[in-house]
Amino acid sequence: MNSRLVSVMRKEFIQAFRDRRTVIMIVVMPILQLFLLGYASATDVKNIPIAVWDQSQTPQSRALLDAFRSADYFRIAYAVSSQAEIQSLIEQGSARAALIIPPDYDRRLLENNAQVSMILDGSDASVGATALSVAQLIGQSYGAKIVEEQAALQGRPMLSASPLQVRTQVWYNPDLISAYFMIPGVIGQLLFMITTVLTASAVVRERERGTIEQLIVTPIRPWELMVGKITPYVILSFVEVIEALIIGHWWFKVPVIGNLGLIALSSGLLLLSSLGIGLFASTVAHTQQEATVMVQMTMLPSIFLSGLFFPIDAMPRVLQWISYLVPLKYFIITLRSLMLKGAGLGTIQNQVIPLALFGFIIMGAAARRFHKTLD
Amino acid sequence: MNETFFIEAENLTKHFGEVRAVDGVSIRVKPGEIYGLVGSDGAGKTTTMRLIVGALKADSGECSVCGYDVKKHIEDARSQLGYLSQRFSLYEDLTVLENIRFFAEVRGLKPDEWLPRSLEILDFVGLANFKDRRAGQLSGGMKQKLGLASALVTRPRVLLLDEPTTGVDPVTRQDFWQLLIRLVSTPLHLPPNSENLGGVSRRDEGGVAVLISTPYMDEASRCNRIGFMKSGRIIAEGTPWQLRDRLTGRVLELRGSPLNVLRRAAHSDPDVEDVQAFGDRLHIRVREKKADDVLSRLKSRIRSAGGTIEDLRVTSPGLEDVFIALSEASNE
Fold first, then answer.
1. What sign has the CA pseudo-torsion B34, B68, A210, B120?
2. Chains A, B: CB pairs < 8 Å
3. What's the pTM value of the predicted model, to 2 decimals?
């Protein structure tokens, strides 16, 4: 292997491990962020205050409410008797959601086509989205329980369809299966943030300290310097992905159904973008501080427009358009469907292709600029 | 005669916008020679060096290092050079040895060569005992020596040093120059049985060619040759002796009191070009062949102004006198 390349890489590794800031970013921050956001998002969806309009007032309807109560996610805070009451409670923010049980609930449950409706407050999207999925889950499992009970009681054959449907009235429909949709997002955000910041400052550091001039006059080629400086951070980033997956999977019990190879591939494509952005910033900035500020400017839109916290579908049209320029968005969508749904390459290609495209463009531009500043 | 030059720069020119930072500079440095670039800040010394090492591209002119054209064969040229930039700094978070190793490897030393060579060069500059210390914890002088060591570790045949001793204490400067002189006078940084290192044949070895810039006149006087730069040009070049010779017989040294009376008297003489104070004495530069006239006129003038003369005579000019004269000449 190219020995100049190896020595640049060795040097970067030594420097990365001697720099306390870098070590903290690589080792401590993922753990901290995963736990903070993992738990913050988990407690968020507990005890959501809801209003209930039970028009049925039967043992069957009360049993459904018990199912909601025991699930811990909802707190039945109000019992109301009109649509107007629901509206005012949700407008005030006193209730985040409302459950409406129709008068013919008990009868239709016997006919196996009962419907209840759930109105969700879309203004707090993360709560709303979670509430929505939880409500559906409760409906499903409760429905399944009824089927089992009926089958046992009456000796009827088990039905495959659920007798109960929770119909929701939120016009966005977040793509989510479990309450832990946060973890894949956090992994993406961490990967993106750490690699951009570290690459940018690793390159700028040379210029700030004046060592770049020494490097220029050695026979090293620009690509060797660039690859040599970036590779250690690529390796560290993959270590980080693994660290985050392990914590996510073993601690937060987030399923990792998808192909690990595909996860690695899409992480690699995200790295292409983040390293490219970092490298690009480093060719523009003169000090590490400047580089950090620049990187942060790309970070904020990335975090908010990537669907990490807020569903993109719920955003105004203009922001949705802008979100097409956010590589992190493609990655988070990909990682969620890989981890949670076990999606295959065919399903994620609509995300992977733009992610790759973005990565190659920004990396290409950064490499050109990097090359130029060395000349 | 068939003289070889390790550095050959012809008519280098570099503009920064409207400013001509380097304006037709030609420099040739032989093996075993220390060539000093002197001149005030902004005269173009650093830019000249950066053109020679290829860190900047010249607008026009030719430059080669050890016969390799800097434009066409930059990597070959660079494998022959060691360069210490003005703001030289090391990786402060790496140890002395790690720093040297990095530069050694990046500049082409093989995995089995770098260690013995690094230890040898650290020994040469006197840092052998500090090899495991972080560079950030070295004193200023030691950092400078480490810089020199990392520039020398691949045995370059050409060494470019941009104000390497600025801000370094006099004792360390002295050490530094001793190292330089040892370096150029003997091929001593060559182990006895290595003919070939880093792909460079050393058979024609005479010594290293050094191009150094310095603001210190005492350092300039140690160089084999000096080029004096002003506004991007080399306006005078020669050995220290040749340069001093330009003013031989034209500098008077005057001691006496009170100094302000002496100074006023000297200034009022029509044949006096310049008066500079050096401690308790004045150096008076006079027009060519006017030394005797001025000498006799000054004596009477000072007495009539009420001053006393302890000593007044023609003295041998220092480089400082020469540079002041040169700076003024090109201003006119």
1. negative
2. 68
3. 0.70
